[in-house]
């Protein structure tokens, strides 16, 4: 390798972190500089907490209706759901004329709602570019009567209003290009390779988006597919053009990006020590869909934001402009109401961290460290009838307690159960009322991690597992059988499952699992601190037949936090159902 090439590879590893091979990945993780880069890149994002997602495209013209008929599911998928031929779908572009669109007004709505960033569909799976693409005339400037570069207008408006700006880009699926993934219905396509598509369209478009639209805060890839290594690498290296751009985890398999993406749902378990974001439509569909009245209530939206913040994540809330370029009143009203709540209570969201105080009966808690003190924001959803609010398990001295709205001081008492705060009779806010506690020192509450007990045992149950699974759909998920949770429907051999736990006892542990296997056998690995334990499990006689199995021994070198991961062996995987993994201490090292 020539020195110049080596330099490029090295700088790629340092700037982009963990998307290369495993060995390089680990090298990058060890690299303090790389971590510092990630931290400096992520600072604004961690502070921001709340962003606007926008799905807008030519599907918005007909609001998901094809030949006057409703199609099921999200409107931006209508081309696939309706098996609409390319030539027919192109006609929507000819009708796209959102004359009521005003970028400044639009961005202003995000700003007033308290959102700090905006991510918009530059190109969705349908392949239509919402910007003046230079490599394909299938774009808003060349193919619509509107003829304006919408991405440019929104990018500029964001810059002006101090909103961080990001692109959504469907890099693998493209139902219009003959080399894009996903279009199986239009038989008139004369296929070319996917590499060809990436080279001819995705790479030039992404390059353009990263060079002609000012500073880009986020590049939001979607739906990774099996593209070639070469294509993957060429797309991956592009984000280097803007070293501060943050990426999500959906460029391709094994590419963690800067943060994890959860779609539509708030996860029950979140990864420890990683950044993550929940994206969710404000109604049922991502793209504007006629008749979609499935708007979440303002209370629900505010509580979602709080719940996500209390677990350490960001909330990317999607809105759906119509073919006219405006939002429905139902969306506008909700954004306004969220904004009104944020004006008063934003301090309890922005820049907060995951709170170790979990499983509260009355609501959620977020946390901030400040000047050697801890601020706890207690978000009360269910106002106590007796006026007594218990923060269970909190053992610190409280310096000050007050309502965030208006600053009314509150009395609080420490008891053996925790801290009890005396509240006024009536909740100040119908959605969530915030009590601020100023606590001396750092918190005396440990986060709720499973821990190896005095007998040397820890049981990691399915409901406590964090499931690595980007896309929902036909992947591993939490299910129930006989009222016992298991990870099942594990069709995706790239999906893995992990638990972070704690131990004070280094040593050799026996690994046991409660599983069921349908097919003759299945192979997977148990990985903890670098040394995988390969497991071959024979059929247990069906998915309904669970057995407890001894899977072998594994070594833990030091006390502290560890992550155990169960990962399919790609070559010999057959879906298993997994109820739990158990570790039993056998002997010291
Ligand atoms: O852009 C939004 C979705 O269109 C996109 N990601 C978010 C942010 C997305 N693409 N694929 N998926 C999400 C997951 C796949 C869902 C599917 Fe289906 C289930 C594809 C086919 C069945 C839902 C139902 C979508 C179309 C029909």
Give a quick set of tags describing it:
single chain, about 600 residues, alpha/beta, 8-stranded parallel beta sheet, binds ligand H79
Overview of the molecule:
With 589 residues, the protein is α/β, with parallel strands linked by helices. Helix content is 23%, strand content 29%. It contains twelve helices and 28 strands. An eight-stranded parallel β-sheet has the order 7-6-5-4-1-10-9-8, sandwiched between helices. It has a five-stranded antiparallel β-sheet with strand order 19-22-27-24-25, with no helix packed on it. Strand 15 and strand 16 form a beta hairpin. Helix 1 runs parallel beside helix 3 and helix 9 runs parallel beside helix 10. The longest helix has 18 residues. The two termini are 42 Å apart. The N terminus is likely disordered. The site of ligand H79 has 13 residues, from loops.
Strands of the widest sheet, in order across it, are 7-6-5-4-1-10-9-8
Overall body shape: globular
pLDDT below 50 for ≥5 consecutive residues: which ranges?
Answer: 1-31
What is the structural class? alpha/beta
Bound molecules: ligand H79
Work out the number of β strands.
28
- Residue fraction in strands: 25-35%
> If you compute it from the alpha carbons, what radius of gyration comes out, rounded to the nearest whole angstrom?
25 Å
Query: What summary fits the major beta sheet?
Result: 8 strands, parallel
